[in-house]
Write a structure and sequence with these properties.
Number of helices: 9
Number of strands: 2
Order of helices and strands: HHEEHHHHHHH
Helix content: 55-70%
Shape: globular
Strand content: under 5%
Strand order of the largest sheet: 1-2
Radius of gyration: 20 Å
Largest sheet: 2 strands, antiparallel
Structural class: mainly alpha
């Protein structure tokens, strides 16, 4: 699915037709729909409904992904190779791809969206993706300090990179909101402030969004840094895997190096990406 997202991006970057983008996006849409609705959104225990994303839902593991579709075990792993944190990378890329399509179509749904799904409501679709990203992030933050070592695959730093991906996602949204607000500022003199579509009001709204997204990016970056501080406290792999990139201490070294490059600034988040996986 990630490769299909990259294909959509490539289609637009090279100026190819919307039919190419339509086909590429169609290939991932049904799978993304399943992911948004999967993970047991609402779970009933003792006659009570527990909703994903709430403190009660996080405590009960509602919203995480099982290892297989017929797995009804209450214990679900939260790690890169299977579980909430691994899906974060996909959904942040899907949201970026949806934004790209909307920008190409002047923030409106393209004509073919009704054939693909979503009933043409792009804003609702993007909001569903964002809500799921935040829910998976909360699950990763709550249960991501694993006892399996510091590795990328099923260790602490794999989950740490998921937190960095969420931080980068919100920083990207903050930058786009700031650009939109600046664009509206430049149009102030041409539109009356009494109009509903007044660019002054839109600019103020855009600046509020920019601030909110930036604060979210800072929050998730701080959480990733805290995971970095906990690496020395977890049990490290032994034997042949102890220096392995994906299962051993090498992944932890790369993660700590990326945190150093970021240097506590959300503007530097583009410098930190999951090695050998996040290619764009």
């Amino acid at each position: 699915m990630l490769l299909c997202c990259y294909k959509v991006v490539s289609v637009f970057d090279h100026g190819r037709s919307d039919s190419d983008a339509q086909q590429a996006f169609r290939e991932i849409f049904s799978s993304v729909e399943w992911l948004l609705d999967a993970g047991c959104k609402v779970k009933t225990e003792a006659g009570e409904q527990i909703v994903e994303g709430t403190p009660e839902g996080i405590a009960a593991g509602v919203g995480n992904y099982p290892q297989k579709t017929d797995d009804h075990d209450d214990v679900h792993y939260v790690q890169f190779c299977h579980g909430a944190s691994g899906v974060v990378f996909l959904l942040t890329k899907v949201h970026e791809t949806v934004d790209l399509i909307c920008t190409r179509n002047a923030r409106e749904a393209p004509d073919w969206i009704g054939d693909v799904g979503g009933n043409g409501d792009w804003n609702n679709y993007r909001q569903r993706i964002e809500d799921k990203i935040k829910s998976l992030g909360a699950m990763t933050w709550q249960y991501g300090l694993l006892r399996k070592g510091p590795g990328l695959c099923h260790g602490v730093v794999g989950n740490g990179y998921a937190l960095l991906a969420i931080a980068r996602y919100f920083q990207s949204r903050s930058a786009r909101a700031m650009d939109a607000a600046s664009s509206m500022d430049n149009r102030r003199t041409s539109v009356s402030i009494v109009k509903k579509e007044d660019p002054v009001l839109k600019a103020k709204h855009g600046k509020k969004l920019q601030t909110a997204f930036r604060e979210a990016a800072v929050l998730w970056l701080r959480r990733a840094q805290l995971f970095g501080l906990c690496i020395q406290k977890v049990e490290h792999a032994t034997g042949a895997m102890q220096f392995n990139l994906f299962e051993g201490s090498c992944g932890a070294v790369v993660f700590l190096g990326d945190l150093i490059k970021v240097d506590g600034s959300v503007e530097n988040l583009h410098k930190a990406r999951f090695p050998m996986f996040e290619i764009l």
